[in-house]
Amino acid sequence: MTSTTFPKGFLWGGATAANQLEGAYNEGGKGLSIFDMVSFVPKEERGKDIEMDVKSEEELNALLEETGKTNFPKRRGIDFYHRYKEDIALFAEMGFKTFRLSISWPRIFPNGDEQTPNEEGLAFYDRVFDELQEHGIEPLVTLSHYEMPLHLVQKYNGWADRRLVDFFVHYAETVFNRYKDKVKYWLTFNEINISMFSPYIGSGILVDRLEHKEQAVYQALHHQFVASAKAVKACHEIIPGSQIGCMLARMESYPETCSPDDVQAALDEDQKNLFFTDVQVRGYYPGFMKRYFKENNIEIEMLPGDKDILLEHTVDFLSFSYYMSIVASGNPDKAKEKGNFSLGIKNPYLEASDWGWQIDPKGLRITLNKMYDRYQVPLFIVENGLGAYDVVEEDGSINDDYRIDYLQAHIEQMGEAIKDGVELMGYTSWGCIDLISASTSEMSKRYGFIYVDQDDYGNGTLERRKKKSFDWYKNVIATNGEELSQKSLNEVK
To answer: Is 211 one of the catalytic residues?
Structure first.
């Protein structure tokens, strides 16, 4: 038994994204998205860097012709588009209070720059939200989760073009008006800082068109900041009582030693990470980024009124993903090492997942305290989990004790942070049902409480099967986080 102090009404649930879940990429009037163009690369052929960028459709077609690769896992997802009722029923059986999902922008506006939305796409999400409502599950909806219409990349080079602000706001207003009686909780951009690792996925930017990559990426991010603030304004006006937040890929940074150079390096990494939430929560660009821009020949073009928009329409809460911490070094040679998901150097005190992501539950408590001290707004952990290889036993069971141990340790630290005084709204474990990996397009990298019978090449029955962690998480939710151990679960049974 582990006693914690989760507040009444805490939003327990799970998180997904349309491009990794839905499938049906060419049904219901949907247009192509940026992730529809990312093919599967076997693990033995991948480098250490994030494998998400493509340069152009022409280059991709040439690659397909040369290699014969036709495996685009995110086009098929796990067929949630046709199986959403079955999946939502399983979420309800676990006791979900909330379900985080995203709306596919090209399912609503196939090209992204139309005036008239696609009714088939709108109707699909009506059905999904109605099903959630029937089971008493509150939707938490992300407007943009790596699902930009491909047309906006090809015609405008993504968020590098200021015109995307108006396209996005039109899309946001369309879905706010359509679902104003069905959705109360919203997020603008998923992991908005991912553009620093993948300009294509985060901002729809084709890097081969750029002379000054960093300039273009930060300018694109400014456009996203403005679009986010305008979406916040529209959400508050269209849906009274709604709450809308931002979302960050959070990476707590530790200095390698107590050397002041290492401490400064860790501070620099931390500031670069929190810059994105500084703008969206505080409403202005922090001084340390102004210095960085000046020293790196970056000039952000702002239109009259941009500063006022950012300041006047800040988010209601701050959400983030947390999978790992990183270690920073002031030694330039060591700083180039990649010991943790291509980031930072290896932490000798931590174990790692099958994919090399170092596991740091206490880092979650540290980052919750740090972020709450900095912003004093409600926090929401909307992604956290363990990607692992799961084995189906002869009797059909999946004994994922390693996942239970991982989640238990992180939830314990969430409870400690709440005792510290952190205002935490909820927790949605990533990939509550197995889905396609964002970073590698693998199916074999599984996060879920629910096993989906499909392999990396699309083979399988798509049968859903409960893992051992299913009943464990069901008990965690039922006890509002008071019972976390497997021993407690066995006693309940």
So the answer is: no
